[in-house]
Amino acid sequence: MKSLLLVLCHTVIVLLLLVMDVSGQNNTLLVHHCDPGTEAFVCSVASFVYNTGKQQHSKLIHTGDNRNVRLGFPDSKIPYVLRSRGDPTIPTYDAKLHEELNRPPAVIVEVIAPEPADSGSQYALRYLDLSRNSLSDMEKLHVLVNLETLILAYNFLETLENTVFRGMHNLTTLILSGNGFEELDLAIFPPSLVWLWVDGCYIRTLSLEGAHLPALEKLAAIDNNLHSLNVTMLQTVAPNLEEIFLSENVFNKKTIDALHVALDQAGIAHDGFETYGDLLRIHYPELHNDMSDIQEHLESWDAIISIMAVVLNLLCIFGWVGYRVWQTKRQRGQFNVA
Ligand SMILES: *[C@@H]1O[C@H](CO)[C@@H](O)[C@H](O)[C@H]1NC(C)=O
Ligand SMILES: *[C@@H]1O[C@H](CO)[C@@H](O)[C@H](O)[C@H]1NC(C)=O
Ligand SMILES: *[C@@H]1O[C@H](CO)[C@@H](O)[C@H](O)[C@H]1NC(C)=O
Predict the structure, then answer these.
(1) Given this model, what pLDDT does residue 150 score?
(2) Where would you find the membrane-spanning parts of this chain (predicted)?
(3) What count of Cα atoms within 13 Å lies in the side-chain half-sphere of residue 47?
(4) Which residues' Cβ are closer than 6 Å to ligand 2?
């Protein structure tokens, strides 16, 4: 009886929550103003709803002189109902949305996974930050030909379509950090590129064949799986390269020594990258010395935790069996009394 009541109670609470959730969705403010003070630099709006498939849309009232817009920021200000609904707040970035944001020259979209839609329009967009969304495909970005800065850090890009950047004649800064492509062909980038960030991307092969990057000054390829690099060819491809960052790759000692010499000769500054073992020794000297000690400790801890887990499991089983036996006995006792 008691448990039936509990179940009923729970059902009612869950239903109430569902009703509240649905009404919450309907009550979502559809007219947004920039977060106080942000209109001067970049109009920041956390809970913007845009989904062409649904009726509910947000409208932006922008009063500042600066028309740049940042959507979905800060994360903590996005209403819980919008975050937990499952579907992204903004599934596409298209001409209509651009219009509803008052045609901003710069847009930053965070944590709402938009897929740019090719609507054939000429976007005047010069700055686009799509960091930390869930993009696995960027083919549709090719329409944004006026971009000067494109930030796609921490998405799920595994391939870079070789036509995407072709029309972006004004692109100078490209940040692709924290994606997952194993091959990088520098020939796909436009000659206007000055800064290229491809750190933490699991890159194994960096292809220079056919690339032409006369404006490139900085190249960051830290934390990848590179084991070789042809500096002579790099210099041909990017004659104005000033600085390169190559730490945390898998070059062996011999390659590193050769690279240091070649880069110094080419007048390209670098981050003094070392082999991984050397890096550990430099940053954690005690750790390196005590590595075997730590391993032993870990192994003994492993054993202790395993034993404790087994004992806990046994205790639970015994406890449960004991409880059932006691319950049965008590019930029998009650029947006997009755
Ligand atoms: C939201 O409420 C309005 C009236 O306030 C109603 O017309 C509309 O149909 C509701 N929308 C949904 C999705 O329930
Ligand atoms: C690039 O910049 C130039 C000069 O700032 C401008 O005229 C041009 O329209 C821009 N866009 C493209 C795609 O070249
Ligand atoms: C580097 O590339 C050049 C061609 O640009 C080639 O002649 C040379 O042999 C290459 N070096 C290595 C070590 O592969």
Answers:
(1) 94
(2) 303-323
(3) 19
(4) 145-146, 169-170
Residue 7 Cβ inside 6 Å of ligand 3? The answer reads no
- Quick one: pLDDT at residue 298? 65
- pLDDT tens, residue by residue, 148-200: 999 999 999 999 988 999 999 999 999 999 999 999 999 999 999 999 999 99
C-beta of 230 in contact with ligand 3 (< 6 A): yes
Between 198 and 36, where is the model more confident? Answer: 198
H helix and E strand count, the chain: 8, 16
- Give me the sign of the Cα torsion angle 132, 133, 135, 138: negative
User: Does 207 sit in the ligand 3 pocket, CB within 6 Å?
Assistant: no
Tell me how many degrees the CA angle 24-129-185 measures, rounded to the nearest 5: 135
Instruction: Report how far ligand 3's centroid is from the alpha carbon of 232 (Å).
Output: 7
| pTM given for the model | 0.65
Residue 224 carries which DSSP code?
A: S
- The full set of domains in the chain, from first to last, is 29-105 (no CATH), 127-272 (3.80.10.10)
